[in-house]
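To start, an entry.
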Amino acid sequence: MMPQIIPNISVDCVVFGFDANTKSLNVLLIKRYLESKENHEPLVNDYVLTGYHTFENETIDDTATRVLKELTGLDNVYKKQFKVFGDPNRLMNEKDVIWAKNENFNKRTITIAYYFLVKTQEVTLENKQHKPQWFPVNDLPELGFDHRDIINDAYADLKEKALYKPIIFELLPDKFTFNELQDTYESILGNGIDNRNLRRKLLTKKYIIELDEKQVGVSKRPSQLFMFSKDVYQKIYKETYLITI
C-alpha cells in the first residue's frame, strides 16, 4: 500500500555535476510537458527540478534521499538542505496553475530545498521516465515554478561553501588531474579568479595527495594523477568530513 503524502510539503532537489569535457558545472533537470486533450497543442513545455511530496512516515531528509535515488540511482552522496521556499504565489503563474490542476496537487505547497553533488560519470540517464538532462548552470532552459530561484540560491550556497570546505572533490572522480581540479573550481567560482594564485594555493594543501600514477588512454602527454584524502583533512582540521551534511 502506497504511503500517504503530506499534500502541502514537498522536497525539491538541485543536482549538480561537473562535465570535464565542457568544463561546465551542470544541473540535472527533468522535462515538464502537458498537451491539450482537445487539439494536442502544448500547454506546458519546459523543465523543472526533481521533487516530490513527503510521505507521512518519513523525515524530510529521507524524502530528499528517496527522490535523488529514484532519479539517479545514487544515495551515498553529499547533500545539503539550504532553504525553505514558502511564498504563497510561488506556484501561481499561468503554466504552473494549469499543471497543478492537471496533477491535482496543492498550489499552496511549501518546499524544502536540497542540493546534491554527484560524479556525473556515475549517473545513468537512459530509459528514465522524465527524460532527465544536464544543463549548464549559467545557461538554463525555460523553467517552471520558482525553480530558477531555487537553483540560483543553491549555486550561491555552493560557491560560498567551496571557498572553505573540500566539497568540490565530490564532483570529481576518485583520481583526477590537477587541471581537472582547477577547472572544477573555476566552473563554480567563475572565470574571475586568479588561476596562478589558485594553483599555488591548491598545491600547498596536504590533503591533495600526488599519486604514483598518470593518465591512461589519452592521446596527449599523460598528466599526473591526484586524490583527495579525507583522513588527512580530518587530522589537519580536527573535524569529521561528512559525505552527507
Summary: The mean pLDDT is 89. The longest helix spans residues 147-162. The beta strands are 5-19, 24-35, 42-48, 50-55, 78-85, 110-118, 133-136, 176-177, 208-214, 224-228. Helices lie at 60-72, 94-103, 147-162, 178-189, 195-203, 230-237.
